[in-house]
Automatic annotation (TrEMBL):
This is phosphoserine phosphatase. NCBIfam families: HAD-SF-IB (TIGR01488), serB (TIGR00338). The active site is at residues 128, 130. SUPFAM superfamilies: HAD-like. The keyword Metal-binding applies. GO terms for cellular component: cytoplasm. GO terms for molecular function: L-phosphoserine phosphatase activity; magnesium ion binding. It comes from Neohortaea acidophila. Keywords: Amino-acid biosynthesis, Hydrolase, Magnesium, Metal-binding, Serine biosynthesis. Belongs to the HAD-like hydrolase superfamily. SerB family. InterPro entries: HAD-like_SerB, HAD-like_sf, HAD_sf, PSP. Its cofactor is Mg(2+). Pathway: Amino-acid biosynthesis; L-serine biosynthesis; L-serine from 3-phospho-D-glycerate: step 3/3.
Amino acid sequence: MAEKMASAAQPQSPNLVIHILSQHVRTEADWNSLIESNFAPNTQWTAIQNRLLDSSSSDSTKAAGKVLEIRATLTLSNPNERITVDHCKALRNSEAIQHLQQAEKVEVVHQPFDLYLDHRTPGLAVFDMDSTLIQQEVIDELARAVGRYDEVAAITEAAMRGELDFEASLRARVGKLEGVDANIWDKLKRDVITVTPGARLLVKALKGLGWKTAVLSGGFTPLALWLRDQLGLDYAHANHLALNEAATLLSGKLVPGSKIVDGVAKRELLIQLAEENGIPLKNAIAVGDGSNDLLMMSAAGWGIAFNAKPKVQEAAPARLNTSSLLNIMYLLGYTNAEIAKAADVEISILHT
């Protein structure tokens, strides 16, 4: 894509990266129109380079795609100050960006250029499970089996919004699962659970690039371990449900003495996994949708709220509201060709 935004007196290097994800394919002319209307260079910032990450054409005159990357320099009042995630959150929440997203049906994600470069080095990627790697809230589906879906789902929603203490809400919901058939996991795997679009290819691409991956879930081990094997994740941590004496039904309790995987535990596990693998935290990313994911998002070099609750989106370092988890690869700066190579698939497979 033509680099039409560079100024005659452009700075030597960028300090900010902006990704714009469109709901539909845009031609080069479409993108240039959007850029000129919303990202014209001014006294506060200068764009250095832009490129399409998902263009299927090597001919810049025929370039078209859904994902544009802009590398820019943002001028700060203190010339010695570095761009931080907080600066990016302020940009994200600005009236201009909010209007752009609504008017153009795009998602705009900002990140410090230093952080962007850090994630070109293979690191650690940790994910929440429910409503992140999979599209369901598992505890709600377990409650459905004993006719208690509505009351459990209401508690789940309040907990994910951060309105209830996670451990207390977990124990309250688990208590309503007493009597659920211990073999229900097979039915859930077969008939209910759906992996989020893009999750399989995202993990495969990250693994191909040398990243370590983990699911850290406030859900339950039978599905977390299954999902680890399904996606090829390196680690899985979740809560342990106890059975009755005959081991045929859920008892409505957690296994005594087992560690509860709440927000604090997720943060501790992320730090532990990074240390065990010799990975600096700046090279870690954390992805989730609930309030109990915010601590691990803050501990990681970069945290991404994926289709998250409003309060979580507001607090998270970054947010991504798209249908596919594979879009995270674009935020890390990879093109379609690079993603396909890392995942060992044809480019045509990426968005089928």
